[in-house]
Specification:
Blueprint (H helix, E strand, L loop, with lengths): L1 E2 L12 E2 L12 H10 L10 H4 L7 E5 L7 H14 L8 H26 L1 E5 L2 E6 L5 E6 L3 E7 L2 H6 L1 E8 L4 E8 L1 H15 L2
Helix pairs in contact: 3-4
């Protein structure tokens, strides 16, 4: 349907054809606004995880592990001892004071190192691989296909058994070993890893 509109002068204005067969005004239709909105791409979520950034096509994360909070305990112990020595006053000697200051600085550096270790270590089992990344500036990574994993061992101390953490030892088929210490729930990680590996076997 063609619509012929006249201006104030009485002269015909430009004709506009409505694709739907009706009269189309000067304002944009809701359909056109909706189409324009669909053309605008939504911002993509930035993936900061090493594991997520290195997934291949068709690969999914099955289980993730993290470093246990027990790695902060040594820093806290050194700090408490340092504060104690700092407040000890012995006549004619400043050794306790100096020792307390040294231990406080050691505890601070140890705490910073523990934070970096906890938040830079990634360990995951995917549907195709076992992926581990350790380190922030100096990075050490391991990526083993399920067929290349020979076994996964767990080493736990007395405190490790009490608080459920331990060292994972990933053994590859070529004889290589990768040790990842202070992992939270290591037995659960090994269980999920072995289940994923068995599921991939023909």
């Amino acid at each position: 349907t063609e619509v012929l509109r006249r201006g104030r002068s009485g002269r015909p204005c430009a004709r506009r054809r409505d694709p739907s067969g009706g009269t189309q005004g000067e304002q944009s239709s809701p359909n056109r606004s909706r189409e324009f909105g669909e053309m605008v791409e939504k911002p993509r979520r930035i993936k900061v995880s090493y594991v997520e950034n290195n997934l291949i096509v068709g690969e999914q994360v099955v289980y993730k592990a993290k470093v246990h909070w027990f790695i902060f305990i040594p820093s806290v112990v050194w700090f408490v001892i340092g504060i104690f020595l700092f407040n000890v006053h012995i006549k004619e000697t400043v050794l306790p004071l100096l020792g307390g200051v040294v231990l406080i600085f050691i505890s601070i550096f140890s705490l910073i190192s523990a934070f970096i270790t906890r938040f830079s270590t990634e360990l995951a089992v995917t549907s195709k691989r076992v992926i581990a990344k350790v380190g922030f500036i100096r990075r050490n990574t391991i990526e083993l296909n399920h067929s290349k994993v020979e076994s996964i061992n767990v080493d736990q101390s007395i405190f490790g058994r009490m608080f459920d953490f331990g060292t994972l030892v990933i053994n590859g088929t070529g004889g290589g070993k990768t040790l990842i210490p202070s992992i939270d729930s290591p037995l659960e990680f090994r269980k999920n890893a072995m289940q994923a590996i068995d599921a991939r076997q023909p």
